[in-house]
From TrEMBL:
<dbReference type="InterPro" id="IPR040454">
    <property type="entry name" value="TF_IIIC_Tfc1/Sfc1"/>
</dbReference>
<dbReference type="Pfam" id="PF17682">
    <property type="entry name" value="Tau95_N"/>
</dbReference>
<feature type="domain" description="Transcription factor IIIC subunit Tfc1/Sfc1 triple barrel">
    <location>
        <begin position="23"/>
        <end position="154"/>
    </location>
</feature>
<feature type="region of interest" description="Disordered">
    <location>
        <begin position="94"/>
        <end position="113"/>
    </location>
</feature>
<dbReference type="GO" id="GO:0001002">
    <property type="term" value="F:RNA polymerase III type 1 promoter sequence-specific DNA binding"/>
</dbReference>
<dbReference type="GO" id="GO:0006384">
    <property type="term" value="P:transcription initiation at RNA polymerase III promoter"/>
</dbReference>
<dbReference type="InterPro" id="IPR042536">
    <property type="entry name" value="TFIIIC_tauA_Sfc1"/>
</dbReference>
<protein>
    <recommendedName>
        <fullName>Transcription factor IIIC subunit Tfc1/Sfc1 triple barrel domain-containing protein</fullName>
    </recommendedName>
</protein>
<dbReference type="InterPro" id="IPR041499">
    <property type="entry name" value="Tfc1/Sfc1_N"/>
</dbReference>
<dbReference type="GO" id="GO:0001003">
    <property type="term" value="F:RNA polymerase III type 2 promoter sequence-specific DNA binding"/>
</dbReference>
<dbReference type="GO" id="GO:0000127">
    <property type="term" value="C:transcription factor TFIIIC complex"/>
</dbReference>
Length: 237
């Protein structure tokens, strides 16, 4: 049986706060957090997913400003992770030559790099003794996207569909009063309303090759003779 430390020391324990936390693996490269939240339906949809015991998926729209675009549903996977808050000293933008005690100089031409994983790991390496780690809470579920989005019908240049999207689809009565059905002739400016679903293929197609069940196996005659000759040689030797 494993024994504990001889000096009586034990590993430190930390209290995990009971904060409702939701993890989202966004399928896009997020450069604008507000736009990424709007693609998920806004803060109201995310708050509903934070309720305990609710396995509601999140719908992601690549064009949230278009009411006719279909949403891609997520998979709500149960997880048991912990969210940590790591604080490192803020960069001042000043620099000096390594190994010299001269005064720091302001670097006005320094560009602010994107804080990706490589940048964060480099910052943690440079501030091993000056970083602070805090437990924020437990992550009980993670939303991931594994299905394919539907095609989008382009309504650019269509006056009829433009009026429908701006005045009918928002479902607001003042805008609906401004819309009237076009009275043009069927032979002039005739447009077809796109279907609500353009593709029913949600998962990528599996292109695995397999043998046809109705196919018959055939053996060539020269291969049979070759096998017979080999058996004769082995028997005579």
């Amino acid at each position: 049986m494993p024994r504990g430390p001889s000096n009586g020391e034990t590993a430190p324990s930390f209290q995990v706060p009971r904060n409702p936390i939701l993890s989202i693996e966004h399928p896009c490269i997020v450069k604008n957090v507000e736009k990424a939240v709007d693609m998920l339906g806004g803060p109201a949809e995310i708050v509903q997913s934070l309720e305990s015991g609710l396995e509601k998926p999140l719908g992601l729209k690549f064009q949230p400003e278009d009411p006719s675009s279909r949403a891609v549903l997520s998979y709500n996977k149960p997880t048991n992770n912990v969210l940590l808050k790591v604080t490192v000293p803020k960069r001042t933008g000043r620099k000096r030559r390594r190994g010299f005690d001269e005064q720091f100089s302001e670097d006005s031409g320094e560009s602010h790099p994107r804080k990706d994983v490589k940048y964060l790991l480099h910052s943690l390496t440079d501030n091993r003794e000056r970083c602070e780690v805090e437990v924020v809470g437990q992550i009980g579920s993670t939303h991931v996207w594994r299905t394919m989005p539907d095609f989008t019908y382009s309504s650019k240049g269509s006056s009829f569909l433009g009026e429908v999207q701006s005045k009918v689809l928002p479902q607001q009565y003042p805008l609906l009063k401004q819309w009237s059905f076009p009275r043009s002739s069927p032979k002039e400016d005739t447009e077809v309303v796109p279907p609500p679903v353009l593709s029913t293929q949600n998962l990528p197609a599996n292109f695995t090759y397999c043998q046809e069940t109705a196919a018959d196996s055939m053996v060539e005659q020269h291969s049979v003779n070759r096998r017979t000759d080999e058996s004769v040689v082995h028997s005579t030797s």
